[in-house]
Amino acid sequence: MKKYQISVVVSSILLLGTSIFAHAGIFSNPIDLSKPFFCKDISPSPLRITEKGLIMGGVLYPLYNPNAASTPALTNTIFRSRDNLEEIDIVQYTGNGKVDVSYMKFRSNPDQFTDDISIENNKIFERGSFKASNPGSTYYSNNQGCEQ
Q1: Could you give the CA distance from residue 47 to residue 40 in angstroms, rounded to a whole number?
Q2: Would the pTM of this model clear 0.90, i.e. be above it?
Q3: For the chain, where are the alpha helices, taking DSSP H only?
Q4: Which of 10, 39, 55 minimizes the C-alpha distance to 98?
């Protein structure tokens, strides 16, 4: 009986440790942005980055800002529709290769605004593949992430 209890405790500890590491992303696979990837909160079809821009749902979003933010921790690339009313931000974290995607639709060109409040008020909606820390009223996500 004692051996059984010890094996149950050891199995429980191993299972708990594995789930903690998996939740922390230690066992997750990095996303290769040169290959198609899926972000279910953003689009049911795959996202694909080409030399012409980002293709999502058969629509081409040209590259708007290839290096919107680049730090040792992440790289942020922005794609926009030709009329500047749709924007897709792709962030890849250098530590684990995780990708977060945000898809926004605006009432008018967001470049005309300089402050965050005006830009936020100009949004019709924003969908994200991640849980936002301080989401605006137009933000939606099931926090499903992205995968290859």
Answers
A1: 10
A2: no
A3: 2-24, 116-122
A4: 39
DSSP secondary structure letter of residue 111: G
CA–CA separation, 8 vs 78, rounded Å?
50
Longest CA–CA span in the chain (Å) reads 73
Determine the Cα–Cα distance for residues 106 and 123; give it in Å rounded to an integer. Answer: 4
Provide the b/e sequence for 62-90 (b: ≥16 CB within 10 Å): eebeeeeeeeeeebbbbbbbeeebbbbbb
pLDDT confidence of residue 24: 44
pLDDT tens-place string over residues 66-89: 888 778 788 899 999 999 999 999
Would the pLDDT of 113 be above 80?
yes
Q: For residue 73, what are its two tokens?
A: 């921790």
Whether the predicted pLDDT of 26 surpasses 90: no
